[in-house]
Amino acid sequence: MYRRLLGMNVFADEDVLVEDQIIMLRDTGFEAFFTGWSRDFPFEEWAKIARDSGMIYQSVHAPFGGVADLWRDDEAAAEKAYKDIVDCIHTCSDNDIGLMISHCYIGFDGIVDITERGLERYEKLISEAEKCGVNIAFENTEGEEYLNALLENFSDRPNVGFCLDSGHEMCYNFSKNLLEKWGDRLIATHLNDNLGIKDLNGKIFWHDDLHLLPFDGIRDWDELAIRLNKCGYKGILTFELNRNSKPGRHENDKYKRLSLQEYFTEAYIRACRFASKL
């Protein structure tokens, strides 16, 4: 896409190997991709394919299942979550991947306090990442106060920034304009669409986090383009999309009727359509 680099996620649960998906994305038109993290993923192989094919390995998404434990007093649980994220930092460093995306919290009930112990753990993570030459982009999810706490407390750290998830903004953050507060810290995007919050009382839940293709939900993409332009974001436009419907939902079902190549092609068309607004 003229003047804008475009990227999206690969899928670890498809019949097509990630190694082949990277090439498929390149041949479709994308310039970059990102992956999740697991101890058994062949990151070295993926990074080599990226180098050999001219693709940008834009980021690794850190494991998020235990991030709430980083704020809690349970040292054993916190240590496990901490070790997973440190190992993800080392994965990035070992494979010349300069960015790790991290959630700040997970969960919709039993919200825990923002604790000094939690900030101490994150300070250690940020320091380790800085030592390893890895930037951390904290993503807006449920628990917006945790994002605020980290970006405010570590505002002086050059390797800490913000990743805007356009879908989370609608279904977790009540469509609040998060770029108004954190646009100057924006270093990554996770662009996707959804239908907002389904519950009539405004209760947020992960089933609303659909990760639809752009223009398949209620997101005002013209408005988002204006906000991205206002904050001067010139980085890779990275899309985080999902082919599978959430439990009890059917919005993504139509994507599974496409071959993976057809889906990547449709994603690229939508990505270009949005990029043309910037």
Give an account of the 3D structure.
It contains ten helices and eight strands. With about 280 residues, it is an alpha/beta fold. Strands 7-6-5-4-3-2-1-8 form an eight-stranded parallel sheet. β1, α1 and β2 (about 30-35) form a beta-alpha-beta unit. The radius of gyration is 18 Å and the shape is globular. The N and C termini lie close together (about 10 Å).
Features:
278 residues, TIM Barrel, 10 helices, alpha/beta, eight-stranded parallel beta sheet
Please describe the topology of this protein:
Layout: E1 6-9, H1 18-28, E2 32-35, H2 43-53, E3 56-61, H3 75-94, E4 99-102, H4 116-131, E5 135-139, H5 144-153, E6 160-165, H6 166-171, H7 178-182, E7 186-190, H8 221-230, E8 237-239, H9 253-256, H10 260-275
Parallel strand pairs: 1-2, 1-8, 2-3, 3-4, 4-5, 5-6, 6-7
Helix pairs in contact: 1-2, 3-4
Short description:
The protein contains 10 helices and 8 strands. The chain has helices spanning 18-28, 43-53, 75-94, 116-131, 144-153, 166-171, 178-182, 221-230, 253-256, 260-275, and strands at residues 6-9, 32-35, 56-61, 99-102, 135-139, 160-165, 186-190, 237-239.
